[in-house]
Protein: histidine kinase
Amino acid sequence: MKRMKIRLRVKLLASFLVVILLSLSALGVAFYTISARQLERSTENQMTQIINNAVHHTNLYLSSYQRSMVALLSNLSVKKYIDLPSDREEYENYRYMTDIRDSIVEPVWIRNPEISALYIIGYNGNALYYFNSGTEPSFSPKDTAEQIEYFKSHTDGSGRLTIINHTIQGKNAAPMLTLIRRIRGLSSPDMKGFVGIEVKSEELSTLWKGIDLGEDSYFFIVDDQGQIQYHTDPSKVGKQISHKLASEMADAGTSMFRSSAEGSKRAYISRKADYSGWNLVVSIPNSQLVKPLETTRMLIFIVAALTFLCALYLANHFGASITNPIRSLMKGMSQTEKGNWEFIPLPKRHDEITELIVRYNTMVNRLSELVDIVYQSELKNKEMQAERQKAEFQSLQLQINPHFLYNTLETVVCYAVIQDSDEISEIVGALSYMLHYSVRTNLEEITVANELKHVMYFMVIINHRIGRNFEIDMRVSPDLLLRKMVRLTLQPLVENVFQHAFRYGVEDHHAIIIDAGEEGDGFWVSVEDNGCGMTPERLEELRAKLRENRLADDDGEAGQLKGGIGVANVHRRIQLVFGEDYGLTVESGLEQGTRMIMRMPRSAAKQLAGNGAEAASKPELLPPGFSGKNDSWHAG
Structure:
Protein backbone atom coordinates (compact mmCIF):
# COMPACT_ATOMS: atom_id res chain seq x y z
CA MET A 1 0.00 0.00 0.00
CA LYS A 2 2.83 2.35 0.78
CA ARG A 3 4.48 1.59 -2.56
CA MET A 4 1.21 2.28 -4.34
CA LYS A 5 0.88 5.67 -2.63
CA ILE A 6 4.39 6.71 -3.61
CA ARG A 7 3.89 5.66 -7.24
CA LEU A 8 0.63 7.60 -7.56
CA ARG A 9 2.10 10.64 -5.89
CA VAL A 10 5.17 10.61 -8.16
CA LYS A 11 2.95 10.09 -11.18
CA LEU A 12 0.80 13.08 -10.25
CA LEU A 13 3.85 15.20 -9.63
CA ALA A 14 5.38 14.18 -12.97
CA SER A 15 2.10 14.97 -14.75
CA PHE A 16 1.93 18.38 -13.13
CA LEU A 17 5.53 19.08 -14.09
CA VAL A 18 4.87 18.11 -17.72
CA VAL A 19 1.83 20.38 -17.84
CA ILE A 20 3.76 23.23 -16.25
CA LEU A 21 6.72 22.84 -18.60
CA LEU A 22 4.49 22.63 -21.66
CA SER A 23 2.54 25.70 -20.55
CA LEU A 24 5.66 27.73 -19.81
CA SER A 25 7.31 26.60 -23.07
CA ALA A 26 4.24 27.39 -25.15
CA LEU A 27 3.82 30.76 -23.45
CA GLY A 28 7.51 31.63 -23.81
CA VAL A 29 7.71 30.56 -27.45
CA ALA A 30 4.49 32.38 -28.31
CA PHE A 31 5.55 35.55 -26.50
CA TYR A 32 9.02 35.49 -28.04
CA THR A 33 7.68 34.78 -31.54
CA ILE A 34 5.08 37.54 -31.32
CA SER A 35 7.63 39.98 -29.91
CA ALA A 36 10.10 39.16 -32.67
CA ARG A 37 7.48 39.65 -35.35
CA GLN A 38 6.24 42.90 -33.86
CA LEU A 39 9.77 44.24 -33.50
CA GLU A 40 10.71 43.28 -37.04
CA ARG A 41 7.46 44.77 -38.36
CA SER A 42 8.09 47.97 -36.39
CA THR A 43 11.65 48.20 -37.71
CA GLU A 44 10.51 47.54 -41.26
CA ASN A 45 7.78 50.20 -40.94
CA GLN A 46 10.32 52.69 -39.63
CA MET A 47 12.75 51.95 -42.46
CA THR A 48 9.90 52.08 -44.99
CA GLN A 49 8.74 55.45 -43.70
CA ILE A 50 12.26 56.89 -43.87
CA ILE A 51 12.90 55.68 -47.38
CA ASN A 52 9.44 56.67 -48.62
CA ASN A 53 10.04 60.20 -47.37
CA ALA A 54 13.40 60.29 -49.11
CA VAL A 55 11.83 59.05 -52.36
CA HIS A 56 9.04 61.60 -52.06
CA HIS A 57 11.38 64.56 -51.52
CA THR A 58 13.70 63.36 -54.28
CA ASN A 59 10.81 63.13 -56.74
CA LEU A 60 9.58 66.60 -55.72
CA TYR A 61 13.05 68.05 -56.20
CA LEU A 62 13.51 66.46 -59.61
CA SER A 63 10.00 67.42 -60.72
CA SER A 64 10.99 71.11 -60.43
CA TYR A 65 13.68 70.48 -63.06
CA GLN A 66 11.13 68.54 -65.11
CA ARG A 67 8.96 71.66 -65.23
CA SER A 68 11.92 73.73 -66.44
CA MET A 69 12.47 71.26 -69.25
CA VAL A 70 8.79 71.36 -70.23
CA ALA A 71 9.19 75.11 -70.90
CA LEU A 72 11.99 74.31 -73.32
CA LEU A 73 10.09 71.48 -75.00
CA SER A 74 7.01 73.60 -75.69
CA ASN A 75 8.83 76.73 -76.90
CA LEU A 76 8.42 77.43 -80.64
CA SER A 77 11.84 79.00 -80.94
CA VAL A 78 13.44 75.82 -79.61
CA LYS A 79 11.47 73.65 -82.05
CA LYS A 80 12.31 75.96 -84.99
CA TYR A 81 15.96 75.91 -84.05
CA ILE A 82 15.97 72.12 -83.97
CA ASP A 83 14.58 72.12 -87.55
CA LEU A 84 17.28 74.49 -88.91
CA PRO A 85 19.53 72.91 -91.53
CA SER A 86 23.14 72.25 -90.67
CA ASP A 87 24.34 74.89 -93.22
CA ARG A 88 22.46 77.68 -91.48
CA GLU A 89 23.85 81.21 -91.36
CA GLU A 90 25.77 82.20 -88.27
CA TYR A 91 23.40 85.09 -87.76
CA GLU A 92 20.44 82.65 -87.49
CA ASN A 93 22.29 80.69 -84.83
CA TYR A 94 23.03 83.88 -82.87
CA ARG A 95 19.44 85.13 -83.16
CA TYR A 96 17.92 81.92 -81.83
CA MET A 97 20.51 81.70 -79.09
CA THR A 98 19.62 85.24 -77.92
CA ASP A 99 15.84 84.70 -78.13
CA ILE A 100 15.92 81.43 -76.23
CA ARG A 101 18.23 82.83 -73.55
CA ASP A 102 16.03 85.88 -72.95
CA SER A 103 12.66 84.07 -73.03
CA ILE A 104 13.50 80.81 -71.29
CA VAL A 105 16.99 80.38 -69.97
CA GLU A 106 17.22 83.56 -67.89
CA PRO A 107 13.91 82.78 -66.05
CA VAL A 108 15.20 79.26 -65.42
CA TRP A 109 18.41 80.67 -63.84
CA ILE A 110 16.23 82.82 -61.59
CA ARG A 111 13.92 79.95 -60.50
CA ASN A 112 16.65 77.34 -60.19
CA PRO A 113 20.04 78.96 -59.56
CA GLU A 114 21.51 75.54 -58.72
CA ILE A 115 21.30 74.52 -62.40
CA SER A 116 24.85 74.55 -63.78
CA ALA A 117 24.21 74.19 -67.50
CA LEU A 118 21.41 74.02 -70.04
CA TYR A 119 21.79 73.00 -73.69
CA ILE A 120 19.79 72.22 -76.84
CA ILE A 121 21.37 69.86 -79.39
CA GLY A 122 19.86 68.79 -82.72
CA TYR A 123 20.64 65.61 -84.63
CA ASN A 124 21.88 67.77 -87.54
CA GLY A 125 24.62 69.31 -85.37
CA ASN A 126 22.86 72.53 -84.30
CA ALA A 127 23.71 73.16 -80.64
CA LEU A 128 23.12 75.93 -78.10
CA TYR A 129 24.97 75.82 -74.76
CA TYR A 130 24.15 77.98 -71.72
CA PHE A 131 26.24 77.96 -68.52
CA ASN A 132 25.13 79.58 -65.27
CA SER A 133 28.57 80.44 -63.89
CA GLY A 134 32.24 79.84 -64.34
CA THR A 135 34.18 79.43 -67.54
CA GLU A 136 32.04 78.47 -70.50
CA PRO A 137 33.71 75.70 -72.51
CA SER A 138 33.54 75.73 -76.27
CA PHE A 139 32.75 72.70 -78.38
CA SER A 140 33.78 71.82 -81.89
CA PRO A 141 31.45 70.08 -84.37
CA LYS A 142 33.29 66.86 -83.53
CA ASP A 143 32.56 67.34 -79.81
CA THR A 144 28.90 67.97 -80.61
CA ALA A 145 28.75 64.83 -82.77
CA GLU A 146 30.22 62.75 -79.93
CA GLN A 147 27.66 64.21 -77.52
CA ILE A 148 24.83 63.33 -79.92
CA GLU A 149 25.99 59.72 -80.18
CA TYR A 150 26.40 59.42 -76.41
CA PHE A 151 22.94 60.83 -75.67
CA LYS A 152 21.32 58.63 -78.33
CA SER A 153 22.67 55.53 -76.61
CA HIS A 154 21.79 56.70 -73.07
CA THR A 155 18.29 58.22 -73.47
CA ASP A 156 14.80 56.85 -73.99
CA GLY A 157 13.70 56.93 -77.63
CA SER A 158 10.08 57.83 -76.72
CA GLY A 159 11.07 61.13 -75.12
CA ARG A 160 10.89 60.13 -71.43
CA LEU A 161 13.09 61.95 -68.94
CA THR A 162 16.46 60.26 -68.37
CA ILE A 163 18.84 61.04 -65.49
CA ILE A 164 22.46 60.03 -65.99
CA ASN A 165 25.80 60.65 -64.27
CA HIS A 166 27.40 62.67 -67.03
CA THR A 167 28.58 66.18 -67.82
CA ILE A 168 29.70 67.88 -71.01
CA GLN A 169 31.83 70.34 -69.02
CA GLY A 170 34.93 68.15 -68.90
CA LYS A 171 36.62 65.80 -66.46
CA ASN A 172 37.72 68.60 -64.12
CA ALA A 173 34.15 69.74 -63.49
CA ALA A 174 32.35 68.89 -60.24
CA PRO A 175 30.19 65.70 -60.25
CA MET A 176 27.02 66.43 -62.19
CA LEU A 177 23.63 64.85 -62.79
CA THR A 178 22.26 65.35 -66.30
CA LEU A 179 18.48 65.44 -66.82
CA ILE A 180 17.94 64.97 -70.53
CA ARG A 181 15.17 63.97 -72.91
CA ARG A 182 14.63 63.92 -76.66
CA ILE A 183 12.63 66.67 -78.43
CA ARG A 184 10.61 66.86 -81.65
CA GLY A 185 10.95 69.60 -84.25
CA LEU A 186 8.18 71.88 -85.47
CA SER A 187 7.76 70.34 -88.94
CA SER A 188 7.85 66.61 -88.10
CA PRO A 189 6.59 64.30 -85.33
CA ASP A 190 9.96 62.51 -85.28
CA MET A 191 12.56 63.14 -82.61
CA LYS A 192 15.09 65.76 -83.86
CA GLY A 193 17.33 66.48 -80.89
CA PHE A 194 17.93 66.75 -77.13
CA VAL A 195 17.22 69.18 -74.30
CA GLY A 196 19.44 68.77 -71.26
CA ILE A 197 19.98 70.29 -67.79
CA GLU A 198 23.02 69.68 -65.61
CA VAL A 199 22.82 69.95 -61.81
CA LYS A 200 25.62 69.46 -59.30
CA SER A 201 25.26 66.19 -57.42
CA GLU A 202 25.92 67.92 -54.11
CA GLU A 203 22.71 69.92 -54.54
CA LEU A 204 20.63 66.71 -54.28
CA SER A 205 22.68 65.30 -51.42
CA THR A 206 21.46 68.10 -49.16
CA LEU A 207 18.04 66.40 -49.21
CA TRP A 208 19.33 63.28 -47.46
CA LYS A 209 21.91 64.55 -44.99
CA GLY A 210 19.30 64.85 -42.22
CA ILE A 211 18.47 61.13 -42.16
CA ASP A 212 19.69 59.64 -38.86
CA LEU A 213 19.25 55.87 -38.39
CA GLY A 214 21.41 55.30 -35.33
CA GLU A 215 24.83 53.78 -34.73
CA ASP A 216 26.34 51.83 -37.64
CA SER A 217 23.18 52.35 -39.73
CA TYR A 218 23.25 54.33 -42.93
CA PHE A 219 21.36 55.48 -45.99
CA PHE A 220 22.66 55.34 -49.54
CA ILE A 221 21.49 55.78 -53.14
CA VAL A 222 22.58 53.74 -56.17
CA ASP A 223 21.75 54.42 -59.81
CA ASP A 224 20.56 51.82 -62.32
CA GLN A 225 24.19 50.94 -63.07
CA GLY A 226 24.92 50.05 -59.42
CA GLN A 227 27.04 53.16 -58.73
CA ILE A 228 26.60 54.88 -55.36
CA GLN A 229 25.36 58.45 -55.88
CA TYR A 230 25.02 59.29 -52.19
CA HIS A 231 26.22 57.67 -48.97
CA THR A 232 26.40 58.83 -45.37
CA ASP A 233 30.08 57.86 -45.68
CA PRO A 234 31.39 60.28 -48.37
CA SER A 235 34.29 57.96 -49.21
CA LYS A 236 31.90 55.44 -50.76
CA VAL A 237 30.27 57.91 -53.17
CA GLY A 238 31.00 56.96 -56.78
CA LYS A 239 31.83 53.30 -55.97
CA GLN A 240 29.95 50.26 -57.25
CA ILE A 241 27.90 48.03 -54.93
CA SER A 242 28.61 44.31 -55.02
CA HIS A 243 26.86 42.15 -57.61
CA LYS A 244 25.45 39.95 -54.82
CA LEU A 245 23.82 42.91 -53.05
CA ALA A 246 22.40 44.23 -56.34
CA SER A 247 20.91 40.81 -57.14
CA GLU A 248 19.38 40.40 -53.67
CA MET A 249 17.97 43.94 -53.84
CA ALA A 250 16.29 43.17 -57.17
CA ASP A 251 14.84 39.88 -55.87
CA ALA A 252 13.46 41.46 -52.65
CA GLY A 253 11.64 44.30 -54.41
CA THR A 254 10.04 46.53 -51.76
CA SER A 255 10.35 43.95 -48.94
CA MET A 256 12.99 43.99 -46.23
CA PHE A 257 15.76 41.42 -46.65
CA ARG A 258 18.96 40.39 -44.85
CA SER A 259 22.32 40.02 -46.52
CA SER A 260 26.02 39.60 -45.70
CA ALA A 261 27.19 41.12 -48.99
CA GLU A 262 28.98 43.99 -47.17
CA GLY A 263 30.86 41.73 -44.77
CA SER A 264 28.48 41.62 -41.79
CA LYS A 265 24.85 40.56 -41.69
CA ARG A 266 22.60 43.58 -42.20
CA ALA A 267 18.94 44.31 -42.94
CA TYR A 268 18.12 46.30 -46.10
CA ILE A 269 15.04 47.86 -47.60
CA SER A 270 14.95 49.83 -50.85
CA ARG A 271 12.62 51.90 -53.02
CA LYS A 272 13.02 53.11 -56.60
CA ALA A 273 12.52 56.82 -57.37
CA ASP A 274 10.13 57.49 -60.25
CA TYR A 275 12.05 60.24 -62.08
CA SER A 276 15.59 59.02 -61.68
CA GLY A 277 15.20 55.24 -61.53
CA TRP A 278 17.60 55.27 -58.55
CA ASN A 279 17.33 52.83 -55.66
CA LEU A 280 17.22 54.56 -52.26
CA VAL A 281 18.39 52.07 -49.64
CA VAL A 282 18.32 51.98 -45.80
CA SER A 283 20.70 49.56 -44.07
CA ILE A 284 20.69 48.54 -40.37
CA PRO A 285 23.03 45.95 -38.77
CA ASN A 286 21.26 42.73 -37.83
CA SER A 287 22.77 42.87 -34.34
CA GLN A 288 20.90 46.11 -33.73
CA LEU A 289 17.64 44.37 -34.69
CA VAL A 290 18.12 41.26 -32.53
CA LYS A 291 19.47 43.05 -29.45
CA PRO A 292 15.97 43.76 -28.02
CA LEU A 293 15.04 40.15 -28.75
CA GLU A 294 18.03 38.84 -26.78
CA THR A 295 17.01 40.98 -23.81
CA THR A 296 13.44 39.69 -24.10
CA ARG A 297 14.65 36.08 -24.29
CA MET A 298 16.74 36.47 -21.13
CA LEU A 299 13.80 37.94 -19.22
CA ILE A 300 11.59 35.07 -20.39
CA PHE A 301 14.10 32.50 -19.06
CA ILE A 302 14.35 34.20 -15.67
CA VAL A 303 10.59 34.53 -15.23
CA ALA A 304 10.03 30.94 -16.42
CA ALA A 305 12.58 29.58 -13.90
CA LEU A 306 10.97 31.42 -10.96
CA THR A 307 7.50 30.34 -12.08
CA PHE A 308 8.62 26.72 -12.40
CA LEU A 309 9.99 26.59 -8.85
CA CYS A 310 6.78 28.02 -7.41
CA ALA A 311 4.67 25.65 -9.49
CA LEU A 312 6.79 22.67 -8.38
CA TYR A 313 6.08 23.40 -4.73
CA LEU A 314 2.36 23.88 -5.34
CA ALA A 315 2.14 20.69 -7.46
CA ASN A 316 3.74 18.60 -4.70
CA HIS A 317 1.35 20.01 -2.12
CA PHE A 318 -1.66 19.50 -4.36
CA GLY A 319 -0.65 15.88 -5.13
CA ALA A 320 -0.47 15.08 -1.43
CA SER A 321 -3.97 16.50 -0.88
CA ILE A 322 -5.29 14.07 -3.53
CA THR A 323 -3.36 10.88 -2.71
CA ASN A 324 -4.10 10.89 1.04
CA PRO A 325 -7.92 10.78 0.66
CA ILE A 326 -7.59 8.21 -2.13
CA ARG A 327 -5.60 5.95 0.19
CA SER A 328 -8.48 6.01 2.66
CA LEU A 329 -10.90 5.18 -0.16
CA MET A 330 -8.71 2.25 -1.28
CA LYS A 331 -8.78 0.76 2.22
CA GLY A 332 -12.55 0.84 2.22
CA MET A 333 -12.78 -0.72 -1.24
CA SER A 334 -10.44 -3.55 -0.24
CA GLN A 335 -13.11 -4.76 2.18
CA THR A 336 -15.58 -4.93 -0.71
CA GLU A 337 -13.09 -7.02 -2.72
CA LYS A 338 -13.16 -9.61 0.10
CA GLY A 339 -16.94 -9.84 -0.21
CA ASN A 340 -17.73 -8.42 3.21
CA TRP A 341 -19.81 -5.52 1.83
CA GLU A 342 -21.85 -5.16 -1.32
CA PHE A 343 -21.21 -1.43 -1.57
CA ILE A 344 -18.27 0.70 -0.48
CA PRO A 345 -18.93 1.95 3.07
CA LEU A 346 -19.13 5.67 3.74
CA PRO A 347 -16.34 7.18 5.86
CA LYS A 348 -17.12 9.19 8.97
CA ARG A 349 -15.82 12.44 7.52
CA HIS A 350 -17.93 14.22 4.94
CA ASP A 351 -15.97 15.78 2.07
CA GLU A 352 -15.55 15.40 -1.67
CA ILE A 353 -14.21 11.85 -1.35
CA THR A 354 -17.22 10.90 0.76
CA GLU A 355 -19.51 12.37 -1.87
CA LEU A 356 -17.60 10.41 -4.52
CA ILE A 357 -18.28 7.13 -2.65
CA VAL A 358 -21.98 7.97 -2.30
CA ARG A 359 -22.22 8.77 -6.02
CA TYR A 360 -20.34 5.61 -6.90
CA ASN A 361 -22.68 3.37 -4.90
CA THR A 362 -25.70 5.10 -6.41
CA MET A 363 -24.24 4.76 -9.89
CA VAL A 364 -23.65 1.02 -9.50
CA ASN A 365 -27.20 0.47 -8.36
CA ARG A 366 -28.72 2.63 -11.13
CA LEU A 367 -26.53 1.14 -13.85
CA SER A 368 -27.59 -2.37 -12.90
CA GLU A 369 -31.23 -1.38 -13.21
CA LEU A 370 -30.75 0.55 -16.45
CA VAL A 371 -28.82 -2.26 -18.14
CA ASP A 372 -31.68 -4.65 -17.44
CA ILE A 373 -34.25 -2.13 -18.72
CA VAL A 374 -32.27 -1.40 -21.88
CA TYR A 375 -31.81 -5.10 -22.62
CA GLN A 376 -35.51 -5.82 -22.25
CA SER A 377 -36.40 -2.75 -24.33
CA GLU A 378 -34.03 -3.72 -27.16
CA LEU A 379 -35.38 -7.25 -27.20
CA LYS A 380 -38.96 -5.99 -27.37
CA ASN A 381 -38.12 -3.49 -30.13
CA LYS A 382 -36.50 -6.18 -32.28
CA GLU A 383 -39.52 -8.43 -31.88
CA MET A 384 -41.87 -5.58 -32.81
CA GLN A 385 -39.77 -4.68 -35.83
CA ALA A 386 -39.72 -8.27 -37.05
CA GLU A 387 -43.49 -8.53 -36.60
CA ARG A 388 -44.02 -5.26 -38.46
CA GLN A 389 -41.89 -6.33 -41.42
CA LYS A 390 -43.64 -9.68 -41.51
CA ALA A 391 -47.04 -7.95 -41.49
CA GLU A 392 -45.96 -5.59 -44.30
CA PHE A 393 -44.75 -8.50 -46.43
CA GLN A 394 -47.93 -10.44 -45.82
CA SER A 395 -50.09 -7.38 -46.52
CA LEU A 396 -48.41 -6.82 -49.89
CA GLN A 397 -48.40 -10.54 -50.72
CA LEU A 398 -52.18 -10.67 -50.27
CA GLN A 399 -52.48 -8.16 -53.13
CA ILE A 400 -50.65 -10.35 -55.62
CA ASN A 401 -51.37 -14.00 -54.62
CA PRO A 402 -54.68 -15.09 -56.27
CA HIS A 403 -53.99 -18.85 -56.78
CA PHE A 404 -57.55 -19.61 -57.71
CA LEU A 405 -57.47 -17.03 -60.53
CA TYR A 406 -54.39 -18.66 -62.04
CA ASN A 407 -56.13 -22.07 -62.13
CA THR A 408 -59.25 -20.49 -63.66
CA LEU A 409 -57.21 -18.77 -66.38
CA GLU A 410 -55.68 -22.10 -67.35
CA THR A 411 -59.18 -23.33 -68.03
CA VAL A 412 -59.99 -20.19 -70.11
CA VAL A 413 -56.88 -20.84 -72.25
CA CYS A 414 -58.12 -24.32 -73.01
CA TYR A 415 -61.50 -22.98 -74.18
CA ALA A 416 -59.77 -20.22 -76.25
CA VAL A 417 -57.67 -22.87 -78.05
CA ILE A 418 -60.77 -24.98 -78.77
CA GLN A 419 -62.59 -21.89 -80.12
CA ASP A 420 -59.49 -20.92 -82.18
CA SER A 421 -59.27 -17.43 -80.60
CA ASP A 422 -55.60 -16.39 -80.82
CA GLU A 423 -56.17 -13.00 -79.13
CA ILE A 424 -57.82 -14.49 -76.06
CA SER A 425 -55.19 -17.19 -75.92
CA GLU A 426 -52.36 -14.65 -76.08
CA ILE A 427 -53.89 -12.35 -73.47
CA VAL A 428 -54.74 -15.11 -71.04
CA GLY A 429 -51.37 -16.75 -71.61
CA ALA A 430 -49.56 -13.54 -70.72
CA LEU A 431 -51.77 -13.00 -67.66
CA SER A 432 -51.24 -16.60 -66.63
CA TYR A 433 -47.49 -16.13 -66.75
CA MET A 434 -47.73 -12.96 -64.69
CA LEU A 435 -49.83 -14.62 -62.01
CA HIS A 436 -47.57 -17.67 -62.01
CA TYR A 437 -44.56 -15.33 -61.64
CA SER A 438 -46.17 -13.71 -58.60
CA VAL A 439 -47.00 -16.92 -56.72
CA ARG A 440 -44.35 -19.45 -57.64
CA THR A 441 -41.66 -18.26 -55.19
CA ASN A 442 -41.39 -16.57 -51.82
CA LEU A 443 -38.07 -14.95 -52.69
CA GLU A 444 -38.23 -11.15 -52.65
CA GLU A 445 -34.95 -10.77 -54.61
CA ILE A 446 -35.09 -11.58 -58.32
CA THR A 447 -32.98 -10.75 -61.39
CA VAL A 448 -33.44 -7.79 -63.71
CA ALA A 449 -34.08 -10.27 -66.54
CA ASN A 450 -37.04 -11.78 -64.67
CA GLU A 451 -38.54 -8.35 -64.07
CA LEU A 452 -38.09 -7.35 -67.73
CA LYS A 453 -39.75 -10.58 -68.85
CA HIS A 454 -42.64 -9.83 -66.52
CA VAL A 455 -42.95 -6.35 -68.07
CA MET A 456 -42.97 -7.81 -71.58
CA TYR A 457 -45.91 -10.10 -70.79
CA PHE A 458 -47.65 -7.15 -69.19
CA MET A 459 -47.18 -5.24 -72.47
CA VAL A 460 -48.95 -8.08 -74.34
CA ILE A 461 -52.05 -7.29 -72.33
CA ILE A 462 -51.59 -3.50 -72.60
CA ASN A 463 -51.25 -3.65 -76.40
CA HIS A 464 -54.53 -5.51 -76.66
CA ARG A 465 -56.16 -3.01 -74.31
CA ILE A 466 -55.05 0.09 -76.25
CA GLY A 467 -55.57 -1.55 -79.64
CA ARG A 468 -52.08 -0.89 -81.00
CA ASN A 469 -48.49 -2.10 -80.74
CA PHE A 470 -46.59 0.11 -78.27
CA GLU A 471 -42.78 -0.27 -78.20
CA ILE A 472 -40.71 0.06 -75.04
CA ASP A 473 -37.11 1.23 -75.50
CA MET A 474 -34.96 -1.23 -73.52
CA ARG A 475 -31.50 0.21 -72.81
CA VAL A 476 -30.34 -2.28 -70.20
CA SER A 477 -26.85 -3.61 -70.87
CA PRO A 478 -26.68 -7.44 -71.08
CA ASP A 479 -24.08 -7.59 -68.31
CA LEU A 480 -26.65 -6.07 -65.92
CA LEU A 481 -29.45 -8.60 -66.60
CA LEU A 482 -28.41 -10.84 -63.68
CA ARG A 483 -28.19 -8.02 -61.14
CA LYS A 484 -30.51 -8.47 -58.17
CA MET A 485 -33.65 -6.38 -57.66
CA VAL A 486 -36.95 -6.69 -55.79
CA ARG A 487 -39.70 -8.79 -57.39
CA LEU A 488 -42.77 -7.00 -58.79
CA THR A 489 -41.29 -3.48 -58.75
CA LEU A 490 -40.63 -2.71 -62.43
CA GLN A 491 -44.05 -3.61 -63.90
CA PRO A 492 -45.98 -1.33 -61.48
CA LEU A 493 -43.88 1.64 -62.64
CA VAL A 494 -44.63 0.87 -66.31
CA GLU A 495 -48.33 0.49 -65.50
CA ASN A 496 -48.19 3.84 -63.68
CA VAL A 497 -47.03 5.49 -66.95
CA PHE A 498 -50.12 4.29 -68.85
CA GLN A 499 -52.48 5.35 -66.06
CA HIS A 500 -51.02 8.76 -65.27
CA ALA A 501 -48.44 9.93 -67.88
CA PHE A 502 -50.63 9.00 -70.89
CA ARG A 503 -53.88 9.88 -69.19
CA TYR A 504 -55.52 11.09 -72.43
CA GLY A 505 -54.57 8.05 -74.47
CA VAL A 506 -51.42 6.74 -76.13
CA GLU A 507 -50.19 8.89 -79.05
CA ASP A 508 -47.53 8.20 -81.70
CA HIS A 509 -45.01 10.47 -79.97
CA HIS A 510 -45.29 8.73 -76.62
CA ALA A 511 -42.33 6.64 -75.45
CA ILE A 512 -41.17 4.64 -72.44
CA ILE A 513 -37.45 4.03 -71.77
CA ILE A 514 -36.17 1.40 -69.33
CA ASP A 515 -32.50 1.85 -68.43
CA ALA A 516 -30.07 0.61 -65.79
CA GLY A 517 -26.60 1.42 -64.60
CA GLU A 518 -24.10 1.39 -61.73
CA GLU A 519 -22.81 4.21 -59.53
CA GLY A 520 -20.05 3.26 -57.11
CA ASP A 521 -21.47 0.55 -54.82
CA GLY A 522 -25.03 1.19 -56.05
CA PHE A 523 -27.17 -0.17 -58.87
CA TRP A 524 -30.18 1.60 -60.41
CA VAL A 525 -33.04 0.82 -62.78
CA SER A 526 -35.11 3.68 -64.24
CA VAL A 527 -38.45 4.03 -66.06
CA GLU A 528 -38.71 7.25 -68.07
CA ASP A 529 -41.61 8.60 -70.14
CA ASN A 530 -42.35 11.72 -72.18
CA GLY A 531 -45.89 12.13 -70.91
CA CYS A 532 -47.67 15.01 -69.19
CA GLY A 533 -45.33 15.09 -66.18
CA MET A 534 -46.23 16.62 -62.80
CA THR A 535 -46.57 20.09 -61.37
CA PRO A 536 -44.00 21.05 -58.67
CA GLU A 537 -46.73 20.79 -56.03
CA ARG A 538 -47.76 17.28 -57.14
CA LEU A 539 -44.11 16.17 -57.33
CA GLU A 540 -43.40 17.44 -53.80
CA GLU A 541 -46.56 15.70 -52.53
CA LEU A 542 -45.37 12.39 -54.00
CA ARG A 543 -41.86 12.82 -52.61
CA ALA A 544 -43.29 13.57 -49.17
CA LYS A 545 -45.28 10.35 -49.41
CA LEU A 546 -42.11 8.40 -50.23
CA ARG A 547 -40.25 10.01 -47.30
CA GLU A 548 -42.79 8.48 -44.88
CA ASN A 549 -41.16 5.07 -45.54
CA ARG A 550 -44.35 3.05 -45.15
CA LEU A 551 -46.73 1.09 -47.32
CA ALA A 552 -49.47 3.16 -48.97
CA ASP A 553 -53.05 2.80 -47.73
CA ASP A 554 -55.90 1.63 -49.93
CA ASP A 555 -57.75 4.96 -49.94
CA GLY A 556 -56.13 6.39 -53.11
CA GLU A 557 -53.40 8.43 -51.42
CA ALA A 558 -50.48 9.94 -53.35
CA GLY A 559 -48.45 7.28 -55.13
CA GLN A 560 -51.24 4.68 -55.11
CA LEU A 561 -51.95 2.82 -58.37
CA LYS A 562 -55.56 2.04 -59.10
CA GLY A 563 -55.95 -1.73 -59.10
CA GLY A 564 -52.22 -2.36 -58.65
CA ILE A 565 -49.18 -1.96 -56.42
CA GLY A 566 -48.57 1.69 -55.46
CA VAL A 567 -45.39 3.71 -56.09
CA ALA A 568 -45.03 4.05 -52.31
CA ASN A 569 -45.30 0.26 -51.96
CA VAL A 570 -42.55 -0.22 -54.56
CA HIS A 571 -40.37 2.24 -52.62
CA ARG A 572 -41.10 0.50 -49.30
CA ARG A 573 -40.54 -3.02 -50.67
CA ILE A 574 -37.07 -2.02 -51.87
CA GLN A 575 -36.29 -0.61 -48.42
CA LEU A 576 -37.58 -3.71 -46.61
CA VAL A 577 -35.31 -5.93 -48.73
CA PHE A 578 -32.16 -3.79 -49.05
CA GLY A 579 -32.41 -1.22 -46.24
CA GLU A 580 -33.42 2.41 -45.62
CA ASP A 581 -30.55 3.78 -47.74
CA TYR A 582 -32.20 2.56 -50.94
CA GLY A 583 -35.59 3.01 -52.59
CA LEU A 584 -37.37 5.03 -55.25
CA THR A 585 -36.72 8.62 -56.36
CA VAL A 586 -38.85 10.66 -58.75
CA GLU A 587 -37.85 13.41 -61.23
CA SER A 588 -40.54 15.21 -63.21
CA GLY A 589 -41.54 18.47 -64.83
CA LEU A 590 -44.88 19.64 -66.17
CA GLU A 591 -45.17 18.61 -69.85
CA GLN A 592 -41.59 17.32 -69.65
CA GLY A 593 -42.20 13.70 -68.68
CA THR A 594 -41.33 11.72 -65.56
CA ARG A 595 -38.37 9.55 -64.55
CA MET A 596 -38.63 7.05 -61.67
CA ILE A 597 -35.36 5.57 -60.45
CA MET A 598 -35.07 2.47 -58.26
CA ARG A 599 -31.76 2.45 -56.37
CA MET A 600 -30.44 -0.84 -54.93
CA PRO A 601 -27.08 -2.15 -53.72
CA ARG A 602 -24.70 -3.51 -56.30
CA SER A 603 -24.42 -7.32 -56.09
CA ALA A 604 -22.50 -10.02 -57.92
CA ALA A 605 -23.87 -11.07 -61.31
CA LYS A 606 -24.75 -14.64 -60.35
CA GLN A 607 -27.82 -16.79 -60.64
CA LEU A 608 -30.15 -16.93 -57.69
CA ALA A 609 -30.53 -20.11 -55.73
CA GLY A 610 -33.81 -22.03 -55.48
CA ASN A 611 -36.80 -20.88 -57.46
CA GLY A 612 -35.07 -17.66 -58.50
CA ALA A 613 -32.28 -19.58 -60.26
CA GLU A 614 -34.85 -21.68 -62.00
CA ALA A 615 -36.40 -18.61 -63.63
CA ALA A 616 -33.07 -17.02 -64.50
CA SER A 617 -31.64 -20.12 -66.22
CA LYS A 618 -34.46 -20.88 -68.63
CA PRO A 619 -33.81 -20.28 -72.34
CA GLU A 620 -37.00 -18.22 -72.60
CA LEU A 621 -35.58 -15.67 -70.13
CA LEU A 622 -36.92 -12.80 -72.30
CA PRO A 623 -39.64 -12.85 -74.96
CA PRO A 624 -38.50 -13.27 -78.58
CA GLY A 625 -37.23 -10.06 -80.19
CA PHE A 626 -35.44 -8.61 -77.13
CA SER A 627 -31.64 -8.70 -77.12
CA GLY A 628 -30.65 -6.23 -74.42
CA LYS A 629 -28.80 -2.88 -74.76
CA ASN A 630 -30.59 -0.12 -76.74
CA ASP A 631 -33.23 -2.56 -77.97
CA SER A 632 -36.92 -1.87 -78.49
CA TRP A 633 -39.54 -4.56 -78.04
CA HIS A 634 -43.26 -4.78 -78.58
CA ALA A 635 -45.80 -7.52 -78.11
CA GLY A 636 -48.34 -8.50 -80.77
